[in-house]
Structures are given as structure tokens and as C-alpha cells.
Amino acid sequence: MQTSRTIADISARQISFVDQRQVTTEKLEAATVDIINGYNQFQLPRYWGETKRAAADGTQWDLYENNLLSERHIRYGGYGGLAYYHVSDTYIALFSHFIPCGAWEAIYILDGLTQNKSDIQPDILHGDTQAQSAPVYRLAFLLGIKLMPRVRNWKDLKWFKATPDEIYQHIETLFSKETIDWALISCHLPDMLQVAQSIRAGRLSPSTILRKLGTASRKNKLYFAFRELGRVIRTLFLLEYIGDEELRRIIQAAQNKCEGFNQFTQWVHFGADKITDNIRDEQLKVIKYNHLVANLVIFHNCQTLTQALKELEAEGMILTPEILARFSPYRTHHINRFGLSEVKERHPRPQTMTLNSDRADVSRPGGRSYAFTHESLRLALLAGCNDLRKRMLFEFLWNTGARINEALAVTPADIELDGVRPLVTLTTLKQQRLTKAGRPPKGHRRTLPLLDADFVRRLRDHLHTFTRYRTKPVWAITDDTARNWLRDTVTACITQGIRFSIDPISPHTLRHSYAMHLLYCGAAPLTLQDYLGHKDFKSTQVYARIRALEVGIGNGYQVRFGMHPDEAAALLRRAGQII
């Protein structure tokens, strides 16, 4: 509801419909990966951190009490779940998960790296105190991941010697009396490698195997083998941790970035104090949505900072790596979460422009241009119309040459987009009413190819989003409504400084533009007659005469608008045009 209030011409019902019919967690993850890959192309994040490092941490999201995931935990207070994020050292989040508050975070810490499909592939993972245990250390080691968490009260952890005979002069008190069982590790090493290989192959997730190996049952020999190997890896890390101050600083900085991202995502989420869905999949989608939007804001901030720094550099300012490293993409003061937004494609254009035809000044009697081009139409739609249904109707008229009543009669059943060649079948409303049972008369319907691949993609998305029944019209509106849509769009364009040399612009103007475009591309007049549905070839020849007029002007021939069709054809041949 809050989103619909901030986006023009889009209702809460439309947003809900798209969310339920089109959006899945897989698609949200794919979109997030695209943003991460684009972010990775910037140079600025290289000054902020290393792509080989990442940190994991969770933050609580409030839930209603009566649902399967909701738990009350003393660490957070209140009922909720835990959004668990894996954040790159360059500030952008790589993966998100939604887990119970009472779960041991270490179980899920490896999932983010094994399921991460972006170009940023870290192999050093930091976490908080809850992100470490002996089984996690050994599984991370087998997967080629170096686990380096921030450890609180590290002196209370058990340290293990390689053999009981070893004595360390200054740190002997840190080690327990137990030693590593190397024989157990050697015996079960093939089994442990097989588990790691299964995870790498995607057969199971690390959290699944960690839950299975989380019990110290005497029958579970594999658990004890994993634990012994984990003790080795953890002892080596703790020795490195206490002896390297720079390492402790790096771990602390990485974890601070992850906690900063948690606060950033809470700021990005607005409109509700808690997740109001009680369905597990919908709760996960909220987390994925929030993850995607947060990454988009980070991408935007990085791009804006890059532009600003380039301008400063062009003015003579010297930007050192130390200065660049001080910046962060977690900036929010310039973003108005509750402001009005527009959903539109951005194309650079001058402030004032005139939309004419492709070629030289092709005019009809009275000095009016006959048609405008596909690119001109796109610019007009982008500038004057933000409603997706209206834009698709205008594009459909241009890409098919349909009469307005034919376009309004089209149903999803008339459109075939998944075959070898995308097709649409057109039938006029009048012909539909006059047709009786039985075989329809000749010329009742005509089938057209859809030649623009981008239009086919947009049309497919439109049908999936806005249509529910295959036999109901795609645009269930009247002829007058369609003409009002176009009139309003033209008015909006004029107010933005776009002037048209065509007056008035009607739905039939788009049909003329379609015909002229086919002639420009070398379509034969008989093919054009078939596509336009003309019974009389004379109706089609008018376009050949207009085309001849233009060619004549461009080549210095003496032409007349009312010239005979044969003369127009001859002129085209003399000019070297294909008809």
C-alpha cells in the first residue's frame, strides 16, 4: 500500500497482482545478482575493501506471534525472525536468508557463499561469536573457505595440542589436556571429502549437513571426525588471532560493515513496523525484496559518488586512495523514501525536439507530415505516458498496423509468442459480431508476424502481468477511451516541450507509420496489402506514391502528390528502390 502511494499511475492492486503472479524468490535473487555484477564494475568499491572477504550477521525482524517461524529470544526481545545477510567487504550484500531467532547462526553461515552466484566470490568469511563452532571450521576448511570470526571471550575456548608431549613456554595455560585424534581424522577423511563434494555439486546445503552433524551421539562417528578436524583449524586460527593485531582490526572492520548494512536495510524498509505475512515463503520474499532495494540504493550511491569525484578530479583536486577509502555507499540523507516516483525508462533527450518522419520533409497537401518513426513514438511514449497499459496499446498499434477496433478485439488467445515466429491474428469487432457458426468467410481474419524482438519481449511481460483470461480482450476499453488515452499522451508531450509536425494524431496515424516503415525496409506492396488487410490494392498504392514523393525530392526528380501509381512505381525503379 505504501509503495503505491509513492508511485504515480500504479495502484496497490496492480502491485499485489504482479507480486503474486510474477515475482518469486528465485527471480529476486537473479535481479540481485545482476545488481551485484553491475556494482562490481565500478572502480570506487576497490578502495573500500577486498572482494575476497565477506562478513555474515543477522538482524531481527518483528513477526506476529502465531506463525511457524516466529520465536521470542532474550537477545532481541519480542517475537520475530532473523534476517541473515552475507555482506562483501566492498559494502554490497551478496546473499540473504530468513531463519528463526533461536537458531545457532553458525549453521547458516556457509550457505551464503555456496549459493552466491555473483561475480564477487569471497573465500574469507568473517562472522560474530555465534558464527563459529568446531564443525563449522572443518566444513569451511574442506570447502576452501577460510573462516575468521570475531570471537568474544576467546580465552575461554578450548585449545588443542597436536600431541600430548608438546609444551609451550608462554601460552601453555591456554591449551586443554585433550589432544587431536589424528587416527580418527585419517579414517573418515574420504567420507568428509565426499560430503564437501556433495555440497559443491549442489546436492545439499551446508546448513543441512551441519544440522545432521550437530549431535554428539556415540553412533555418529562422522560427527566426531568433523569435530576433530574443526578443533585443528580453530586452534590454528586462534593462534593467528591473538598474535596479529592487524588481523583483529580487519575482522572488526568487516563485521562493522555487516552491522552497518543491517541498519541500512532497516532504514530502507518502510511502510510497516513488522512483516505482516504469516506464510514462510512470503516472509522470505519480503527479505529478498528488502535486500534488492538496499543493493539498488547502494548501486545508485556508488554511481553518484563516482560522478561527483570525477568532476572534482577534472577541476584539479587530487584524490588519493586514503581519501577515497573514507567514503561509504550507506548514505541516506539525500533520499526521500516517501516522495513521488515515476516508473519509466530513461533515455537522454534534448529539452525541446520536433518529431518528424525518418526521411526528408515528406508532406501531404497542407504541409503535414504523414507519419512518425518508431524511435519518435518511443520518445513520445516515454515522455508523455507512464501507464504501462496505455503504452503497450500504442506500441501494439505501431508494430501491427492494426485498426483501433482490431486492436481492441485482440485476446491473449490471438497472440502466439512462443513459436518459431511470433504472430498475432487480427479480427475487427464488426466482423466478430457478423460471423455466424461455421467456417468464417475469407478475409475475416489475418495473421501478422511480429518483427521487433524487443516489442515481443515487452508484450509477453504485459500479458503475464495484466491478463488473466485467454478469451477476454487485452484492452477492455471503448474506441473513445483509446482515443482519449492518445490525446492525453500527446498533450503531456507538448507540455514537456515536444512538438509534433502531425496534427491531429489519431490511432490511425500509427497504422500509417507502420505502413511507411515497412516500405522503408523494402517490403513489397503486395505484402504490405496483405499486412494492412486492404481489399483494394489502390488503398495500398497511396503509400507507394508518398514514398515516391520522398524519393523524388531526395533525388531531384519532378514529382506530384497526385501522380498515377504506375508513374510512382517507375520513379521508384529509377531511384533504385526495391518494390
Characteristics of this structure?
single chain, 579 residues, alpha/beta, 21 helices, elongated, disordered C terminus
Give the proportion of residues in helices.
Answer: 40-55%
Low-confidence stretches: 347-375, 547-563, 575-579
The whole-angstrom Rg is 33 Å
The N- to C-terminal Cα distance equals 55 Å
Counted by DSSP, the helix tally is 21
Shape: elongated
SS strand fraction: 5-15%
Largest sheet: 6 strands, mixed
Please give the number of β-strands.
15
Mean pLDDT across all amino acids: 77
Backbone structural class:
alpha/beta
Layout of helices and strands:
Elements: H1 2-6, H2 12-21, H3 25-39, E1 53-62, E2 71-72, E3 79-88, E4 93-100, H4 111-114, E5 124-126, H5 134-142, E6 146-147, E7 159-161, E8 175-179, H6 182-200, H7 206-212, H8 221-243, H9 245-268, H10 280-314, H11 321-324, E9 353-355, E10 363-364, E11 368-369, H12 374-384, H13 388-400, H14 404-408, E12 415-416, E13 423-426, H15 429-434, E14 446-449, H16 453-466, H17 479-495, E15 498-500, H18 507-520, H19 525-532, H20 537-555, H21 565-574
Parallel strand pairs: 1-5, 5-6, 7-8, 9-15
Antiparallel strand pairs: 1-3, 2-3, 3-4, 10-11, 12-13, 13-14
Structure description:
The chain has 579 residues and is α/β, with parallel strands linked by helices. The chain is 47% helix and 11% strand. It has 21 helices and 15 strands. The chain has helices at residues 2-6, 12-21, 25-39, 111-114, 134-142, 182-200, 206-212, 221-243, 245-268, 280-314, 321-324, 374-384, 388-400, 404-408, 429-434, 453-466, 479-495, 507-520, 525-532, 537-555, 565-574; strands at 53-62, 71-72, 79-88, 93-100, 124-126, 146-147, 159-161, 175-179, 353-355, 363-364, 368-369, 415-416, 423-426, 446-449, 498-500. The strands form five sheets. Strands 1, 2, 3, 4, 5 and 6 form a six-stranded mixed β-sheet that branches. A hairpin with a 3-residue loop joins strand 10 (363-364) and strand 11 (368-369). Residues 347-375, 547-563 and 575-579 have low confidence and may be disordered.
